[in-house]
Specification:
The chain is of the alpha/beta class and 319 residues long. Helices cover 45% and strands 13% of the residues. It folds into two domains: 2-196, Rossmann fold, CATH 3.40.50; 211-312, Magnesium chelatase subunit I, C-Terminal domain (Helicase, Ruva Protein, domain 3, Orthogonal Bundle).
């Protein structure tokens, strides 16, 4: 299985240049059955990363460009009456794919954004009173422009919380940017990509990740990190139990990618900024420009080698 992970990383890195850490975070998120939000300026490779991940994992894929005039039915689909058959037929929307790229999600209205909520949380959608199961595995990869750009709507906290991670690609280094400028046939290379893994193998890896060992001290570390954000007067949104579960799942995937069958504090620290930052910030100010600033404050307050004593010295655990 580790050879598969290495092959996946190499193929994605051959197209998305100079972003090994961001690629690893994205892959860890998908292996942990999470959805990912990629926020950055236009032209930074957000859509390319999503396309490469879908092709490399061999999953059905549909890109949807979100716009201000989009309706929820454009995402989930609609039932249309068939006069000949005298019944309603479901015309499925792009949500009925294993990987759904919601491109520039924050350009759509909140009503359309909310069409993804049930799908992301429960793997199903409701259309005209009927419930339809989505394919497995099912991932949403959403991209969004910074909120200071014209024509953007901030995602509400309830929607942000459905994304396991939020990452930013950032500007490439000089060597990577030179390769990008030289490689004018990048689109052809993208089309020639072949899957490195089957759906069956992907599901087997997910089952292995579910069994990655988490010790009591790691559980206490995650609890302490979450409770630090809930103390009175904290200038951040509190982390919910769902956030704690997401952090643990991401840490398990990170440990697996580092060829370990157990989680260590460094795994938690590695994924914590991407898992927590968009939850800690308010929806009106959410931005990756200061990615890691709030999460760094939280990490500094808890000793990973002795989490609960460190934690209880600042806050009463009973509260």
């Amino acid at each position: 299985m580790q050879s598969l992970i290495t092959e996946i990383m190499q193929q994605v890195s051959s197209v998305v240049l100079g972003k090994k850490q961001e690629i690893k975070l994205s892959l860890a998120c998908l292996l942990a059955r999470g959805h990912i939000l990629i926020e950055d300026l236009p032209g930074m490779g957000k859509t390319t990363l999503a396309q490469v991940l879908a092709k490399t994992l061999g999953l059905s894929y549909q890109r949807t460009q979100f716009t201000s005039d989009m309706l929820p039915a454009d995402v989930v689909g609609i039932s249309i009456f068939n006069v000949k058959e005298n019944n309603f037929e479901l015309h499925k929307g792009p949500i009925f794919n294993q990987v759904v790229l919601a491109d520039e999600i924050n350009r759509a209205s909140p009503k359309t954004q909310s069409a993804l909520l049930e799908a992301m949380e429960e793997g199903q959608v409701s259309i005209d009173g009927k419930t339809y199961q989505l394919p497995e595995p099912f991932f949403v990869i959403a991209t969004q422009n910074p909120l200071f750009h014209a024509g953007t709507y901030p995602l509400p906290e309830s929607q942000l919380d459905r994304f396991m991670m939020r990452i930013s690609l950032g500007f490439p280094n000089i060597a990577a940017e030179k390769e990008i400028l030289k490689n004018h046939k990048n689109r052809e290379k993208l089309q020639q990509l072949t899957p490195c893994i089957t759906t069956k193998q992907l599901k087997e890896i997910q089952l292995v990740i579910d069994d990655i060992h988490v010790s009591e001290s790691i559980l206490e570390y995650v609890i302490a990190l979450c409770h630090i954000t809930r103390k009175e007067g904290a200038e951040m949104n509190p982390l919910s139990p769902r956030a704690g579960k997401a952090l643990l799942a991401a840490a398990r995937a990170w440990a697996f990618m580092d060829n370990r069958d157990y989680v260590i504090p460094e795994d938690v620290c590695a994924v914590f900024p991407s898992v927590s930052e968009h939850r800690l910030e308010s929806a009106s100010t959410v931005s990756v420009s200061n990615q890691g600033s709030l999460s760094a404050q939280v990490l500094q307050q808890v000793d990973p080698t002795n989490p609960l004593p460190s934690y209880t010295s600042k806050i009463d655990i009973e509260t």
